[in-house]
């Protein structure tokens, strides 16, 4: 085994305590994993062109589905959107014991997520994600999130200690945070 070899893919997965058939629960877990994957890609300064969904059924059959993207990405919302489409095709009432998501065909992050001249909202979502990454780095991973994470079952993961972390954290579909201190009222 050579620890110096080149990284070919980055992925993350989880095995459930009990098998799950509910699409919403699977979707929420996929979002959590996608967020974790995106954080790992950004930390390693990597991006990937192929998104892969991994599922294991209750009878231990392994299902993998992949989609190649036009441009490499490391943004959670792009990875999630493609992985969720793959999940929607497979979540047909079967029970799953494992779900995972990964990216391969790794590329230079400078080539990742180029500005889209036709769909400017994609560029705005990318910039919003980078802004929320900054907030999460400063105030903790639970300070801000998308709406899909609001009613998701909480999983135990060690939280990194952060300075100046507010006690209350919220999750929203839009990149805003009401738990940050508000400005003092102005005097006239």
How would you characterize this protein structure?
The protein is α+β, with helices and mostly antiparallel strands and 188 residues long. Among the domains are: 9-105, Dna Ligase, domain 1 (2-Layer Sandwich); 129-150 and 168-176, no CATH class. It has 3 helices and 4 strands; from the N terminus they run E-H-E-E-H-E-H. The chain has a 4-stranded antiparallel β-sheet with strand order 1-4-2-3, covered by helices on one side. Strand 2 and strand 3 form a beta hairpin. Helix 1 runs antiparallel to helix 2 (76-90). It is globular. The termini are far apart. 24% of the residues are buried.
How many strand elements? Answer: 4
Helix content: 25-40%
Rg estimate, integer Å: 18 Å
The order of strands across the largest sheet is 1-4-2-3
**Structural class from helices and strands?**
alpha+beta
- CATH H level of the domain at 9-105: which superfamily? DNA polymerase, Y-family, little finger domain
Protein name: DNA polymerase Y-family little finger domain-containing protein
Pfam families: IMS_C
Region (Disordered): 149-188
Biased composition (Basic and acidic residues): 152-168
């Amino acid at each position: 085994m050579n620890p110096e070899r080149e990284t070919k893919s980055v992925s993350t997965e989880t095995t459930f305590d009990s098998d799950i058939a509910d699409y919403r629960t699977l979707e929420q877990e996929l979002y959590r994993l996608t967020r974790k994957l995106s954080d790992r890609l950004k930390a390693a300064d990597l991006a990937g062109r192929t998104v892969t969904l991994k599922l294991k059924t209750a009878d231990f059959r392994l299902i993998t589905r992949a989609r190649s993207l036009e441009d490499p990405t490391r943004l959670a919302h792009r990875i999630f959107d493609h992985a969720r489409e793959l999940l929607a095709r497979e979540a047909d009432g079967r029970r799953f014991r494992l779900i995972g998501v990964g990216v391969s065909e790794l590329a230079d992050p400078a080539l990742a997520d180029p500005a889209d001249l036709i769909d400017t909202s994609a560029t705005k979502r990318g910039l919003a994600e980078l802004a929320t990454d900054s907030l999460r780095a400063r105030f903790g991973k639970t300070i801000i999130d998308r709406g899909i994470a609001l009613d998701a079952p909480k999983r135990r993961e060690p939280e990194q200690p952060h300075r100046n972390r507010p006690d209350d954290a919220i999750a929203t579909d839009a990149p805003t945070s009401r738990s940050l201190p508000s400005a003092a009222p102005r005097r006239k």
